[in-house]
Design a protein that fits this description.
Layout (H helix, E strand, L loop, with lengths): L6 H19 L14 E6 L15 H19 L4 E4 L9 H10 L4 E8 L9 E6 L5 H11 L8 H4 L8 H8 L6 H17 L5 E7 L2 H4 L5 E8 L3 H8 L1 H24 L6 H10 L14 E3 L8 E10 L16 E6 L2 E9 L2 H13 L6 E6 L2 E3 L1 H10 L1
The structure holds zinc ion.
Length: 395
């Protein structure tokens, strides 16, 4: 049976009316969250002035990092006129590491991007890596940070400016990299986007997001990354980074990452959920599982233009071009091929020493290329190993 507006009904509607009034007069005391807006970005071209950074055969890091930085800045300025782009340097000048971070802090930057080039005693390592501040998990990461931090030895007052940090003391590197960066997750979010686009757009081989103690990132009060755009000690990467097209491709990749990061952060009011944070932290120093199954880069050799004495390991030849995926096992070695008398000759290298080439020959042989052999080239012309030995002996 239905009952229309009994005592209970009247009481209920009275109560509801009261509730509406209470709600109308009640103003919550929590101020509304101001939406996140990425307003200022600082672009830091590594090195400069009397600090040349690392170098390849004909390029140095300070020049290339500046070219890529200016290109990146131009892209942001053109596409986001409301974003303020600040450069730590626009010319070939020396700026202390602490001052670079201070520039970002003074300008209340929302993002700090350092652009560098990598180096290795061996000519074979290649690929990009993007670093966030933190304790290194591998010796290799530590070595990159050490090389980049060592530039403070070129500064006049480094002992005063880095709280007693001593680049020559290994313990110093560990102690200071324990400083947890407050913007760790945001930094990783941007870093992984950078690596993603360097791989898909610039067609670089990504070595992933990594962590190590970089002095330049240490005291920044905003998400900060340091991008190693490739190895100047690897001839084919040096050629890429030294070219206008290569520099543009790198700058565009970082720009796409910037665009995604800006959108992401503005859509989520700059908040990263606990779940997402966990996901991001797992990104750092992730074992390169994919690299063993993905297709390696096989480039047509430019040995003809190569100056000086170089060594390569010829491990395979065929009368037609071979799919790069066939050489997946040799990833991440530098693979090139030359076309000679109707044959495609596949090689590892080039390397600057016979020793290194011999090691790579062993690597090729253990991977199933039992007939792999070392070849020597002098100014692009094939010479015998004995001739090469004689040349290195007279050096
Ligand atoms: Zn550098």
């Amino acid at each position: 049976m239905k009952k229309r507006f009994g005592k209970k009904g009247i009481l209920l509607s009275l109560f509801a009316g009261l509730w509406v009034m209470v709600c109308a007069f009640y103003t919550p005391d929590t101020t509304p969250v101001t939406p996140y807006k990425l307003k200022t970005v600082v672009i830091d071209a590594g090195h400069g002035g009397h600090d040349h950074g690392c170098s390849g055969a004909s390029n140095n890091e300070k020049t290339l990092s500046l070219k890529m930085s200016l290109k990146l800045g131009e892209l942001i300025e053109k596409n986001y006129p409301d974003v303020k782009v600040i450069y730590t340097r626009k010319t070939d000048v020396f700026i202390e590491l602490y001052e670079r971070a201070a520039i970002a802090n003074r300008n209340n930057a929302d993002l700090f991007i350092c652009i560098h080039c990598n180096a290795n005693p061996s000519t074979s390592p290649s690929g990009t890596e993007t670093y966030v501040m933190g304790l290194h998990k591998t010796e290799a990461n530590l070595n990159v940070a050490k090389r980049e931090n060592d530039v403070i030895l070129l500064e006049s007052d480094y002992k005063q400016n880095y709280d007693g940090f001593n680049p020559n003391d290994p313990a110093s590197h560990i102690i200071f990299s324990l400083n947890q960066h407050a913007f760790m997750e945001q930094s990783i979010l941007f870093a992984s986007s950078v690596e993603k686009y360097l791989k898909s757009h610039a067609k670089r081989s990504s070595r992933g997001v990594k962590q190590a103690g970089f002095l330049v990132l240490w005291k920044t009060a905003m998400p900060s990354v340091l991008i190693e755009t490739g190895f100047l000690t690897n001839p084919s990467e040096e050629k890429f980074l030294g070219s206008e097209d290569g520099q543009t491709a790198i700058a565009e990749s970082i720009f796409y990452a910037f665009r995604d990061y800006k959108n992401d952060m503005e859509n989520t009011s700059g908040v990263i959920s606990e779940e997402k944070a966990k996901e991001l932290n797992a990104e750092v120093d992730k074992a390169p599982t994919a690299s063993t199954t993905t297709t390696p880069t096989v480039e047509k050799s430019s040995t003809d233009q190569q100056k000086g004495l170089t060594f390569s390991v010829q491990f395979y030849s065929a009368q037609s071009e071979v799919a790069a995926s066939k050489f997946a096992k040799l990833q991440p070695e530098n693979i090139t091929y030359v076309q000679e008398n109707g044959w495609y000759k596949y090689r590892l290298g080039p390397y600057s020493s016979l020793d290194e080439a011999t090691k790579k020959q062993t690597l090729a042989r253990t991977n199933g290329y039992k007939d792999a052999f070392v070849i020597a080239m002098k100014d692009g012309k094939r010479i015998s190993i004995d001739e090469a030995r004689a040349l290195t002996a007279t050096k």
